[in-house]
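Team,

Forwarding the record for the chain on the shared tracking sheet. I've put the sequence and predicted structure together so nobody has to dig through attachments.
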Amino acid sequence: MAAEMTVVRHTLSRRALVRLLDEIDAVEQAGTPGGRWTAWLSPPEPPALATGMSWGQGPADAVQAIPDEAVTTAEGSSTGSVIFGSEADGIVLVPPFPLQERGRASGWDTRALRALLAREYLLGAVLLRLEGYAVGVLQGDRLLDSRTGSRWIHGRNRKGGQSQRRFERTREKHIQELFDDACQAAQDKFTPYAARLDYLVLGGDRHTLQAFLKRCRFLQGYASRTLDRVLPIAEPKRATLERLPALLWQSHLLMWSGAAGLDALGVRLPFQGPTASEEGRAREGDGHG
């Protein structure tokens, strides 16, 4: 059966995900048969899906039809996942922020994802590369406060000898000064919101951020609220902070289907035209007109 599976992946904006949930609700409300079920996996304790019945209410052979790629995506998400399954088809949605719900139900139920998308999370953001930093507080699509800064960090000296050692000491000093500046900026900007801050998001170079967090004791206190993902930020600037909400609210989609193809789901992706079945019905309607 695995050889007959069709699997597609997409990244969805906040608005596109809402439109997709509308499509899912429309299929559910139509009441067409198909053994549909919903499962919610919240981090950080995804169930072991290899046993088969962890996801669905349906028969074991239907659950075993889930491709390995979908299982890996759902279980590997640091923000949890929602699975809309049927007898041989399904959708895995990885939300942008941690899912609080956990469990399973018959039918397709979009309420948990809709509740998450309706929230206006208060976020602290630290974007850092060796050329500079940008620190901001965001809520919804708004940048509430920010600070940016930069320091000149020389590249590595490869000549060797005492000259290289002096150069490396100077370079390390400049890096530490950059880290201290960024840490102070985070403390100044986050402290007024500390009690209400939902999550801390990081962007830039992962290795630089790891070294920075070891030095910045203030942000160590936010460890339990720090999202695992590191945003791919090339330039830590205020303009980048202003564009950040679009990146933060991206969700990831995986759809799979058996031999009947993805149209069997009856769900139209937000960036697609009508499904093949819809086009067929439209042609039939034209023929009888």
